[in-house]
């Protein structure tokens, strides 16, 4: 899920130029250009809200390429009755990025929730199995070391219940006060940290 590609798709569908979208939401055209090309990696809730309003979609639809389907529900509305709320699977989008590069410095221990994506229960079951919504979060990826598997600006789902090595695979993890998204592989005496982009060398944790 690349929000930049989605914004470009929606903008073109409305026959809007970059400058027109930028003026409508009160930012420079260069900011929209950076967002669409993946160079703008972090988004405030205010920016997401303005983009969604201008493009005529709900915020959740900025994160999916299938807005006409029934897989993603509209963003949270506190006025929904309790029965409808129980039918939703809500995943929070965190105001934090993981580095597919040389690491991002971690901020404070408190991480803000900038929004959420809501799925109907049947689709959530198909996508995530029996994992509870509370154990899943969405974060932004910065850097290209995991390309083409994960591109800069992509939003990824993270299972926060996994807090130790649990077999070879892609992990989001903290090391030396930095946050990474990398492929980890265990060998007898150390843990290899591998980038899918061959321009980056692997390193190890012992």
TrEMBL record:
Family annotation (Pfam families): HTH_31, Peptidase_S24
Look up the signal peptide feature and give its range. Answer: none
List, alphabetically, the InterPro entries matched: Cro/C1-type_HTH, Lambda_DNA-bd_dom_sf, LexA-like, LexA/Signal_pep-like_sf, Peptidase_S24_S26A/B/C
Which species?
A: Salmonella enterica (Salmonella choleraesuis)
Q: What is this protein called?
A: Helix-turn-helix transcriptional regulator
According to the entry, every stretch annotated as the HTH cro/C1-type domain falls at 7-62
Q: Which UniProt keywords apply?
A: DNA-binding, Transcription, Transcription regulation
In its UniProt record, a GO molecular function of this protein is: DNA binding
């Amino acid at each position: 899920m690349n929000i930049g590609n989605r914004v470009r798709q929606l903008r073109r569908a409305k026959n809007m130029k970059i400058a027109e979208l930028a003026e409508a939401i009160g930012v420079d055209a260069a900011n929209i250009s950076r967002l669409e090309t993946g160079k703008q990696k972090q988004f405030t809730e205010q920016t997401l809200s303005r983009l969604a309003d201008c493009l005529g979609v709900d915020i959740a639809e900025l994160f999916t390429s299938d807005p006409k389907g029934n897989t993603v529900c509209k963003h949270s509305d506190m006025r929904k009755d309790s029965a409808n709320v129980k039918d939703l699977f809500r995943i929070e989008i965190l105001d934090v990025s993981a580095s597919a590069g040389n690491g991002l410095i971690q901020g404070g221990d408190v991480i803000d929730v900038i929004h959420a994506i809501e799925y109907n229960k049947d689709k959530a079951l198909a996508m995530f199995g029996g994992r509870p919504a509370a154990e899943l979060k969405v974060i932004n990826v910065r850097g290209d070391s995991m390309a083409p598997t994960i591109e800069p600006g992509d939003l990824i789902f993270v299972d926060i219940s996994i807090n130790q090595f649990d077999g070879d695979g892609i992990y989001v993890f903290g090391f030396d006060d930095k946050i990474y998204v990398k492929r980890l592989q265990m060998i007898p005496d150390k843990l290899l940290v591998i980038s899918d982009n061959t321009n980056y060398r692997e390193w190890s944790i012992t």
